[in-house]
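Task card 7
Instruction: Convert sequence to structure tokens.
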Amino acid sequence: MTTMTSTGGAGSAVAGVDSRRTTTRALLFGGAAAGPLFGLVAAAQVLTRDGFDLSRQPLSLLALGDLGWIQITNFVVTGLLAVAGAVGLRRALRGKPGGTWGPALIGVHGVGLIIGGVLVSDPSMGWPAGAPEGAPEEMSWHAVGHGVGAMLAFGSLTIACLVLARTSWRAGERGWATVSLGSALAVVAILAWPDQGSISVRMALACVVVFGWLTALCGREITN
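Output:
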């Protein structure tokens, strides 16, 4: 009887571990999917919404107009997936270098995206039709909130790159450390480039870099 009880307990423990691993992998898959989803939905809108010009109008403005709900949903769902990825990374990296601050910063990134989706920008740069051709003279409270969300999303993920670059280098993972550091420096260089006329395109490029890094990070932990 004792043997049967012990065997049953061991089996339950193994099942619990397997269930946790499955859940962690599912969360990591969510984090890995965040960037590709955002990019595909945004690109489809850039190509199909009549009058939208990425060379002048940032992706955030897609949240305005009759079909604005598509980009709002894109921001929110992507943010939720990033938060899920952060939880998965916290589980996968528990007890490892960067296992606390890295996932926490990625979670902040997700929250920033959600804020950026719920709080929309003001009409500007000629979008939607009839909007002022330049920047608005005064910003609404929700446009200010959108800006805060954008800064959280970009800033926190860039810092996460630096955190994991440092911890990976110390752990001897020089290749991944170089990728992480390079991603952070690329985002800073892209956004700091002194040409306001190309800011919309540069912000889109920065999205590609940081989302690509997040996808690579989650994919890396899925395969470990």
